[in-house]
Each structure stands twice: as structure tokens, then as C-alpha cells.
Amino acid sequence: MKVGFVNIFGKPNAGKSTLLNALMGEKLAIVSPKVQTTRHRIKAILTEKDFQIIFSDTPGIIDPRYKLHERMMQAVKSSLEDADIALLLTDAQEDVNENHEIFSQLRLKVPAIVVINKTDKVKDKSVLNDAIQFFSSKPYCKAVVLISALKKEGIDALLQKILFFLPDGEPFYEGEDLSDLPTKFFVGEIVREKIFELYEQEIPYHTTVLVQEFKEKSTLIKITAEIIVQRETQKGILLGQGGTMIKKLGTLARKDIEAFLGNKVFLELYVKVRPKWRDSDLFLKEYGY
Ligand SMILES: Nc1nc2c(ncn2[C@@H]2O[C@H](COP(=O)(O)OP(=O)(O)OP(=O)(O)O)[C@@H](O)[C@H]2O)c(=O)[nH]1
Ligand SMILES: [Mg+2]
Predict the structure, then answer these.
(1) What pLDDT is attached to residue 127?
(2) Rounded CA gap, 161 and 142, in Å?
């Protein structure tokens, strides 16, 4: 059997989470048009008859500006340490040199596949050929694959390339679990995704979500979640005039959580102010970072 860890790295917004979902054929990681959406390492287990791949989605690579950022980059570091294969993801519309800089700084010790994403957005195909040429000659690069994670194009070809480089071994995980993370985590992530969708500017970046209660009742699942912000003014924005915004958030999140769990859900959201939580070791720990 072919078995191993295949970890995805790249700049914020390159499409890492979209790619993880496309590889899994299931939406596990949240996605948004804004940068720095993913904050954790998200492992996803793909088991077939003759292989088991443990994929990891990671936060986009950035220079840390506060402790939450540092935690995010620790998640990248831990993923570098146990990777069998690295997928280095680039946005086809972006400068190849900048991506190359970042990939070189990773000092990879394992084979890497450079994956050029968002090919659906590129009109001039010579851009893609140039990128293939550029990355093929780099020391860390064992192969280059073109994909559109959004349109699910090139995913099978990528999977074949991964299997080619994957070592033989025994499966790490038994059973049907798709991830090692608890359901509560994914529920919190869905609420966070809706915050990225509904609120502008700095709000999503000052916010985190903590699922407090997850109770399976006879006909539905009762979920209580806290939305943590840094300032009173942000709490006001989250709630909106007469609570209209948080109501909208609750409805959007509940629908996705119901689809994810395959069950009816009663969702209660509270907003709490925790000044400077992004720079507090204590709060970061409490919120799962
Ligand atoms: N057109 C197009 N858009 C894509 C493609 N893949 C991802 N996107 C979009 O790019 C944006 C970012 O996608 P994500 O998957 O959240 O990117 P990420 O690399 O996980 O971002 P961070 O978690 O912030 O590091 C979203 O709006 C996606 O819909 C693609 O193949 N084509
Ligand atoms: Mg992401």
C-alpha cells in the first residue's frame, strides 16, 4: 500500500483549502476570497484500496505580526516536519519569482510538486508554459502540475503524480474518519467562514469562534458558539442594527452546519469582547491555537 503525508504550502489565497476540498471530494476546509482564512493545520484522510494519503491544509505563509500569526506559522512548520511530499501551490496569475523565494525558504527535505492553480483565470496560455519552465529547473521541484481547484480540473493527474512519489507503508488511520479534528472544530470553522463572507475589513481578522456546547437531542443538535472580538465597537458591528447582522450570520452558518452534519441544528451565537486575545498566550490556548 502507498501511504504518506502530503502537505500543502503556499501564499495566502493561493487556493490551498479549495485544493484540499477538491482532493477529498468533500468540503472540510473553509474558503474565502480574503487572505489568511485558514489558521490551523487541517489533516484530511483519503483512504482507498491501495493507498492512504493524509493531506494537510496549512495557513498561508506570512511574516508574523502578532502571536496568532506566530501560531499559524508554527502550524506551517509542523507540517514541514512530517511531510512525505510537499505540494507547493501558486496562483497562476501571480509572480513566479515571489513564490520561488518563499518555496526556497522552506528548505524542503522531501520531494515537492509545484502545483499551478487558478489556470481557469489565465487567458494567455504562454504564461502557463513559462511558469512550468521556470519551476521545472528549481532544485526542490520534482514535477509541475496545472490545476483549477475551483473547477476541479487536473485533480486526477495531480493525484497520480502524488501516488508516484508516495512511499510504501501501512495505513496510519483505520475506520472512516476523514479528519483527526473534532466535529466542534469544523462547526466553529463554518461560523468563521460566514464571518469572512459577511463582514468587511478588519472584522474577520479580529475574530475567532469557540463552540461551547454541542448536544445531540432527539430531533436536532443544539450548538452554542461564542464569537470573540477584541473591541466593543467590533461587537456592535457583528451584531448590527437591532441584531440584524448576527441573525443573518446565524442563518447562513446554520444552513452549512446542517449540510455538514446531515442533521437539523439549533444554533445560538454570543459575542464576547476579549481585548488583545490575538496576543495573549492564555486566550490563544483557550481558543485552540
Ligand atoms: N478562479 C479560481 N479561483 C480559485 C481557484 N482556487 C481557489 N480559488 C479562489 O481563491 C480564493 C482563495 O481560496 P482559498 O482556498 O481560501 O485559499 P487559501 O490558499 O486556502 O487561503 P488562506 O487560507 O488564506 O491561506 C477563494 O475565493 C477561492 O474560491 C481556482 O482554481 N480558480
Ligand atoms: Mg485556506
Answers:
(1) 96
(2) 10
Closest CA to 271 of 246, 252, 254: 246
Buried b / exposed e along 223-255 (16+ C-beta atoms within 10 A): bebbbbbbeeebbebbbeeeeebbeebbebbbe
Cell of 191: 461560523
For 107: left if phi > 0, alpha if psi spans -120 to 50, otherwise beta; the answer is left
Those residues whose C-beta lies under 8 Å from the C-beta of residue 255, and which sit 6 or more positions away, are none
Cβ of 78: how many Cβ atoms within 10 Å?
14
Q: Quickly count: other Cβ atoms within 10 Å of residue 188's Cβ.
A: 25
CB-CB contact of 8 with 108 (8 Å): no
Contact in structure between 85 and 111 (CB atoms under 8 Å): yes
Nearest protein CA to atom 24 of ligand 1, as residue: 36
Is the CB of 21 within 6 Å of ligand 1?
no
C-alpha cell at 43: 489533516
- pTM, two decimals, is 0.97
- Is the shortest distance between the CB of 114 and ligand 1 below 6 Å? no
pLDDT 10s digits, 49-81? 999 999 999 999 999 999 999 999 999 999 999
150 lines ligand 1 (CB under 6 A): yes
